[in-house]
Amino acid sequence: MTVRDPLTGLTGFTDIIGPLGTLAEPPFKIPETVEELRYFLQAALALEHLTIPPYLTAMYTLKPGANQEARYAIRAVVLEEMLHMTLVANLLNAVGGQPVVADPDFMTDYPARLPYAKDPVPIALRHFSREALRTFLWIERPEYLADLPGRGGPDPRGWSSIGQFYATVRQGVIDLAGRHPDLFSGEASRQIGPEDFYNSGGMVFPVTDLDSALKAIEVIAEQGEGVAETIYNPDDRLFGQTREIAHYFRFTEIYEQRRYGPHDTPFSGPTGPAMPVCWADAYPIDPTATAEQYPPGSQVRVAADRFNTVYARLLWLLELAYNGEPKRLQAAVPVMLELRDLAEQLYRNPHPDPEKAARGIHASATYEITGVELTRAKAELDAGIGSAALLAVLS
Question: What Gene3D superfamilies does the database record attribute to this sequence (predicted)?
Fold first, then answer.
């Protein structure tokens, strides 16, 4: 049985033409060695990050004061995706791995192909719109799929869902813990705890054994698709927090412009009160924009390049935090504020291409992170340089 899904196929994505960026996917198998498990977990770290730029783009393109309920919902999901990244990093550190974030190969170009999926679904940087929400529903959709790859050799079936990928990681953790009593012998000092991380839902906790490892995977999977074919995430049961609906159903509320009622299920759809959404209250952008489309030296080119450097600084903070400097996460908050302000300034500017500007298209952040941006960002991070000067010029 499948859940009720507002998607009708890929007809809403026909404006995406050309090649799609890709993330490296592990082979379709259960990880059989500790080294393979580390590889799978590094892939999971990149997967969790993949969703953050599209979600931020939808949130940042909202016009000031508009769609506040939708803004809050998307913001909460972004924070939980960062929670997922941190839990994956804790799990990777627990099994003796080394999380890699500040690396050009960690990010893919956008539009990107949705990984661990049979359908070639483009994940693009879209303004707040029905098309953006359709993309988010593809990313978060529950599969309720227990069909795992076989053991002992290549499996020709291939990945069919993100849920299947995490179920496979879970099985690999269980198998390896049974064969390796010292599986969770990573340095305890590399673990990030709740004192180092703020989040809207769930909680960061150290991964030190099989139970905490399985709990981390449960939080990651069920905050996205819901618990046991319900609309709710596990936060009330695991952390004693207020009962909240999972990511897929948060996005369904926005898409359907209606809230879930107390007795609704994934199969009923939302039948509660109306949720006010105004799709016109967002800055339209080109989902295939690149910084090279903006004239060198122009305000929007300077801002787009600056945004990419500041985002690279965020990646550095995450990498340092995940590799023994957990207090670095506290510095991520002001960097996120820099990104928000830079993005909002970009989206308020018409696109410099006259034809696109005539169609109401605005400039946008492009999330293009190469070795150049990472090198510059590390130097600025070490020197304590921020974005205040540029914001003063653009304001």
Answer: 1.20.1260.10
